[in-house]
Model the fold of this input.
Amino acid sequence: MSEQLTADVTIDARGAGCPGPLMDLIGKVKKADSGTVFELQTSDRGSVTDVPEWVEKAGHELLETVEHDDYWSIYVEKA
Amino acid sequence: MTRIVIVGGGTGGTVLANRLVEDLDSEVEAGEVEVTLVNDSPDHVYKPTYLYVPFGKKTVEDAVRPLADLVDRRVDLEINRVVGIDTDAKTIELQDGRDRLSYDHLVLATGAKLVPDEVPGLVEGGHHFYGPDGAEELRDALAEFEGGHLVLSVVGVPHMCPAAPVEFTLMADEWFRQRGIRDEVDITYTYPIMRLHGLEPVSDWMEPRFAERDIHTETFFNAEEVDPEAGVIRSMEGEELDYDLLVAIPPHAGDDLVTGSGLGDDGWVAVDRHTLEAEHAEDVYAMGDAADVPTSKAGSVAHYEADVVADRIASEVRGQLPTATFDGKTVCFIEAGMDEATFVEFDYEHTPELRDESRPVHWAKLAYNETYWLTARGLL
Done:
C-alpha cells in the first residue's frame, strides 16, 4: 500500500465489465504525455490480470495494484 | 403543457417519439403534452445497411428513408441542429429559426460520430464501411483488389455495432473465395485487447472459425498511426503490419454538445445504467449510442432503452413514480460469411451463448433489415 502514489489522471471504471476498464485506460493513455501516472479504478476482477498484461506488452510501467474493499486501483505510468 | 424534447432521430429517438405519443395518446390529443423530435437532417439512416454495400449486396440509398415517413403525425418534427443545452434554464439552443426551445423532459439520443483523424494517416490510408461515402469507396476498392494483404483493424473501441468487424472479415473471406482469388489474399484481423472480441464467448466462437479460414489475428493491437506511402499500420504496442488494403473501424466520439453542456466526457452522457437518467442534470435522459452504459452501441440497445425511457417519462407526466428500468438487454446478429449467421443475446447479468451459424439465421437477419422500418415506426 503506497501513501505516496498520486495519479495525474484517475479513471473511475467501477461497475463496468471487461474489457471496459482496460479500454478506458488504453484510450486515456493514447492521448496523454509520457510520464503521466494513471489510477484505474476497477471492480472487474479480470482487469487485475488483463491490465498488467497490456501494460507490459505496450512497454509502460505498472507501478502498483491496490486492493480496496470492493474495487482495485491499478497505477500505471505511461512510457 | 408538458414539453418533451428528444434530440436525435436515429433508431432510439424515432422509436421513443412514436412510443411516447402512443403511450400519452389522450394527453397529447388534449394538448397537455407536446412531443418534439429535433434532428439535424430530414433523413433517418439505418446504418447496418452499410455492411452490405462493399460487397454489392445493398446500396447506400437502401439505408435512408425520410424521417417524416417514420414518425407519427402527432410528433412535432423539427429539422434543426441543436447547438447548446442549458440544463439549469431547461432550454436547448437551435442553430436556425427559433433560437431556443424549452423542455420539461429532455432526451439525448445524439448517437456516435466517426473521428478517423485522431489516428494520423488513417483518413488517407484506410477504408471503412461506417458511412455512405466510406462504404462506396470500399466497394470500389474491393472490386479492384486482385490480391495482397487485407488488414481489418479495429482501431476504435467503443464503436457502433461490435459485431460488424467480425462480420466484415468473415464476409470478405467468403467473397474472395467466391471470386476465386482467396489464395491471392492474406487477411489479418487486429483487436485492441488480449482476445479477438470484447465479449469472451464471441471471441471463443471466432477463434476456430478464423483459424479454419486462414485469417491471421493480432491482439493487443492499438493502432497509433498509418503510413499510407509505405502501406504500414503501426500500433501503440510497437507492432507494425504491411497492408495493401486497410479496412479500419475508425475511432468514435459522441456529440460535442454533450461535453459542452457538462453532461459527460468524450461526448457520452454519464447516466445511471438502469434508469438512463443523466447523472449531471435533472429531467434529462440519454439513450442509444450517446449513453455511457456498459453494453454495446447497437440499434437493439437503443430500441430497448427507448421502451424504458418512454415508460419512465409517461409515468412522470402522470405524476407517478417511474419504475421501468433497463437491464442491459442487447441482441445482435453476426454474419459468419455470405449465407450463414448466428446471433447473441445478453444483458448486464448474463453473458451470451453462441450457437453454430446457420442459413435460417442469416435469412432472419436479412428479413429483420427489411422490416426495420416498421420497428422504427413503433409497429414491431
Notes: The two ends of chain B are 30 Å apart (CA to CA). Chain B touches chain A at residues 157-158, 192-194, 198, 200, 220, 222, 224, 236-238, 266, 273, 294, 348 (CB under 8 Å). The longest strand of chain B covers residues 33-39. Chain B has a mean pLDDT of 96.
